[in-house]
Amino acid sequence: MDRVKLQFSKEESVLLTDPSFILTKNRILARISEMMGAISEEEVKMAGLLREQLPPEVFQFPPKLSRGEQYQQLPWLMLDFPRVFQEPDQLAIRQFFWWGKLFSSTLVVSGRHKEAVLHSDLKQWPDLYICVHASPWEHHFEADNAQLISSLSDEKYRSICKKEFLKLAFQLPVENWEQAPEFFIQSYSRWMQLLVRS
User: Fold this and answer.
1) Is the CB of residue 74 less than 8 Å from the CB of residue 101?
2) Cα 132 from Cα 144, distance rounded (Å)
3) Of 32, 91, 27, the residue nearest 67 (C-alpha)
4) How far is it, in rounded angstroms, from Cα 57 to Cα 7?
5) What does the alpha-carbon distance between residue 122 and residue 139 come to, in Å, rounded to a whole number?
6) How far apart are CA 159 and CA 103, in angstroms?
7) pLDDT digit of tens for each residue in the chain (198 aa)?
8) Closest alpha carbon to 95 in 21, 194, 27, 185
9) Which top-rank group of organisms is this from (predicted)?
10) DSSP 75-102
């Protein structure tokens, strides 16, 4: 019978009996979701203006907004456009909100898209991160996943670029939430610069 007893801390008891926290959380997520929906419309417009210069795969699928509750036990929202995940030529731009942590914008490429991006000067942006993890689908910015390109030796940078995929990222601390729309648009514009064919 001991196994079925419920025990909560004082803090947990307060939250358990107060629905306002969950209702507030739902309102916050709804507002961020609405903002991301508007961002997706801007992304489609930006890409459309460059249609002749971008890989046709950019337009293969429409934007997709997803949400979940358990990325490292915290809620998240995610906008993908473009979203081509088939090997060998992956091409995805992901705008991500992670509750209590950050907003991030990532570009994931492989195959010919990776080779095209590597012809650009990625060191032009001192706030640009590169994925050092074996998987491109982790979204945190701990040192075992993402490192500033500007902090890497040339040798380490070249080694990272030999992986099958290339994942680049910008981040915005969640405390700077007012800047999120501008951050997403600016990041998307930077990704477009890398994808435009000369």
Assistant:
1) yes
2) 7
3) 32
4) 53
5) 20
6) 27
7) 567 788 999 999 999 999 999 999 999 999 999 999 999 999 999 999 999 999 999 999 999 999 999 999 999 999 999 999 988 999 999 999 999 999 999 999 999 999 999 999 998 999 999 999 999 999 999 999 999 999 999 999 999 999 999 999 999 999 999 999 999 999 999 999 999 985
8) 185
9) Bacteria
10) EEEEEEEEEE--SSS-EEEEEEEETTTE
Q: Which residues contact 173 (CB under 8 A, 6 or more apart)?
A: 102
Q: For residue 109, give the H/E element and its range.
A: strand 102-110
- Specify the pTM: 0.93
Long-range (24+ apart) CB contacts under 8 A made by 82-85 are 82/47, 82/57, 82/58, 84/57, 84/60
Partners of residue 147 on adjacent β-strands: 130
The C-alpha atoms of residue 153 and residue 166 are separated, in whole angstroms, by: 17
